[in-house]
Amino acid sequence: LLYHCMHKVSPTALYIYAIVIEMLFGKPKKVAIIVYALKEEKNLWPIFHASFEEFFLPKAQKHYYIFTDDVAHFSHMKKIYPFEVPVLPEPLNELLVFHNFLSEGDLTKGYDYICFANIHLHARKKIEEKDIFPRSLIGEKYSFVQEYAYIDKHKNDYPLETNSHSLAYMEANDIKHYVSSSFFLCETTSYVDLASALKKNIEYDLQQHIIPKDTLASYINRYIIDRIDCRILSSSYALDEKYASDIDAHVIYKII
Q1: Which of 100, 106, 175, 197 has the fewest Cβ atoms within 10 Å of its own Cβ atom?
Q2: In angstroms, how far is the first alpha carbon of the chain from the final one?
């Protein structure tokens, strides 16, 4: 009977059933949140942390991994694990996020999901698992946020890397969505796959003295260009505050 029912309902309905069962009987998901806090950015931490604790996945077990030049600033906090990284000329700090993550060994042990979140983000509305987690029943492994600035733009206006020697190179006809690098969430093994692939691509380009037009976002968008296992989330989950009057966003990117 169960087999018959599963073949009579849509993938979306199956996903909803799975969510209900998980809510009733499942254990809370364990999520590692990767955050960078360099120089004065550490002053944004209290707002970031308070907002994510209140609104972001309130039922999940959240642990924060902070890459910072001021470990002592974070060392006394619970469920927060600081790692020291040097302050480098921009955009190297951004480009080496995956290198630093993989250099710290097995940070992913025991986690169901890994989330990268820019410290400039400020959660304002409740975000539950069903809102942002990849929907595994329909084959999704990654969740990315569509970049609001380019939703109504022609693809030729996207900040695509046009240097064909770069491993971030893309042509406009190849891309469906342009996603943000300020927030993404993946199944743990998929995050490691992403980090490993992009670390290799970034290091190759740096050896060739190539820095893509949109730095980290260029590599992320190139990585997902042919994938069918990505959930593309609304811009509401990482909206630049200059567009705040357009959308009642769940998460705002605060500009300082």
Answers
A1: 106
A2: 58
